[in-house]
Design brief:
Number of helices: 16
Distance between the termini: 114 Å
Largest sheet: 5 strands, mixed
Order of helices and strands: HHHHHHHHHEHEEHHEEEEHHEHH
Strand order of the largest sheet: 3-2-1-6-7
Helix content: 40-55%
Structural class: alpha/beta
Strand content: 5-15%
């Protein structure tokens, strides 16, 4: 009869101790059955025992991919889900009108189909493919619809299963692929810095509002991070709202977001964010839009942004008076605060369109959150362009505002440091900030008096 030895879960020391033999009658140690000239066989048995233990643990470990014994497959009827979506929104005689589609998906039907075609061409994940037995999977419309609804309503992935007929993990995967595809396909066009034509349009519109040379309004928004790791909570903690991440944005009157800088720690304030922002880098490098304009008899060559009280008194920012005295300063403060609300309105519309950035973020990775925020800003700008009435658009070609080309100081190697210091001193010149604000006070009062 063959003797069996249970070696599961044993280490080398335990194995040697358990199989030790007593001394023989002649005073010498009796050699056990497994002993050899060296310990090579012991090492082999120890390796075998480890392999057996690892195999036993792998059998106990739960696997969440593929079929499992006792796990019931959900008959989702994916093709039936696609047919219902098509009949509801995309058929010639669809159930719901364009108005219903716009309200539920935050965009027009034509823009939605344009996005579907673009992401399908860019990412193979959105193409309809057969599985191992030849059954077709979800269609591109199903996958994009699930992602857009998660962005628009901020709901969980499992909530959409009953309509799009896809599993929770599949919907989350579609969301991640969708936001990444939107950033890669549309980011260069819809999240660009203002070019010469954009700058001319912004200057013309803001000049008609009484703020010549104004490029937009700047401010920050916090997005609560519900899944922030415990070890990072101190760095991301913001007041009593818990861990947050910050979005810095520049918006114009039509709510177009020209600059979006996201993923900084929630414990930072607006000044700390500005120091790390590409907006500050473009100002100090001399690559920001340069304009030439005269206000109250004084000539200026750099644009400025409207900011609230926390921002520094720089030449590129215009702030309101904390305690305005006199009719001129009171009128200026009211007009300036009204124009600065452009960025606040843009934040409000962004959160209203995409509830996922209004509620707490439930993703674990910062990279996923970055793609979600960037995609929401890009889709926000796409919706603004799609719904903009071109007939009522401002005719900026007749304003005659000269726009200078930005100077690339990096190509002038011998003067890089000298130019940087010069621009840095001009930007942080408090006297220039006060002179510009006083000129705007007189300019706005002259417009108000002439009416």
């Amino acid at each position: 009869m063959t003797e069996t030895h249970n070696t599961e879960g044993w280490n080398k020391e335990m194995f040697l101790t358990a199989n030790s033999e007593p001394m023989s009658t002649f005073g010498t140690r009796a050699r056990p059955w497994w002993d050899d000239e060296d310990e090579s066989d012991v090492d082999d048995l120890f390796i075998i025992a480890g392999l057996l233990e690892g195999s036993r643990r792998n059998k106990r470990k739960k696997k969440f991919r593929g079929s499992l014994p006792g796990r019931r497959k959900v008959p989702r009827d994916i093709l039936g889900g696609h047919n219902r979506i098509y009949l509801d929104y995309f058929a010639d005689q669809c159930v719901y009108s364009d108005r219903h589609f716009r309200r539920r998906f935050r965009m027009s039907r034509s823009l939605f189909l344009r996005i579907v075609d673009a992401v399908e061409s860019h990412d193979d994940h959105f193409r309809q493919k057969p599985d191992a037995i030849g059954t077709l999977g979800a269609s591109p419309i199903q996958k994009v619809l699930a992602a857009v609804r998660m962005l628009a309503y901020g709901i969980s992935a499992d909530f959409l299963d009953e309509y799009v007929r896809m599993g929770e993990s599949t919907i989350i995967e579609c969301l991640k692929h969708f936001v990444k595809a939107v950033v890669e396909v549309f980011g260069e066009e819809y999240l660009r810095a203002p070019n010469a034509q954009d700058t001319a349009r912004l200057l013309a519109i803001n000049s008609a509002r009484g703020f010549p040379r104004m490029l937009g309004s700047v401010d920050c928004m916090h997005w609560k991070w519900d899944k922030c790791p415990v070890g990072w909570r101190g760095a991301y903690e913001w007041k009593e709202d818990g861990p947050t991440m910050i979005l810095e944005a520049v918006a114009s009157q039509d709510l177009w977001i020209w600059h979006a800088f996201f993923s900084l720690l929630g414990s930072l304030n607006d000044i700390n964010v500005l120091r790390r922002s590409p907006l500050y880098q473009s100002l100090t490098s001399g690559t920001a839009p340069q304009v030439e304009y005269t206000v109250n008899g004084n000539k200026y060559t750099k644009g400025y942004y409207l900011a609230d009280g926390i921002y520094p008194a720089w030449a590129t920012f215009v702030k309101a008076f904390q305690r305005p005295q006199g009719n001129k300063k009171v009128h200026f403060t009211m007009a300036k605060e009204a124009a600065r609300k452009d960025v606040e309105r843009a934040f409000g519309v962004l959160q209203a369109r995409f509830a996922i950035v209004r509620g707490p973020a439930r993703m674990w990775h910062k990279e996923d959150l970055w793609y979600i925020m960037q995609a929401c800003v890009i889709l926000h700008n796409m919706i603004i362009e799609d719904e903009r009435d071109e007939e009522d658009d401002f005719n900026y070609h007749q304003e005659g505002i000269p726009v200078l080309q930005p100077v690339d100081y990096q190509r002038r190697n011998p003067l890089v440091l000298e130019d940087f210091l010069k621009i840095h001193d001009e930007i942080e010149d408090r006297s220039l900030h006060e002179r510009l604000r006083d000129d705007l006070v007189e300019h706005l009062w002259a417009i108000h008096s002439s009416r």
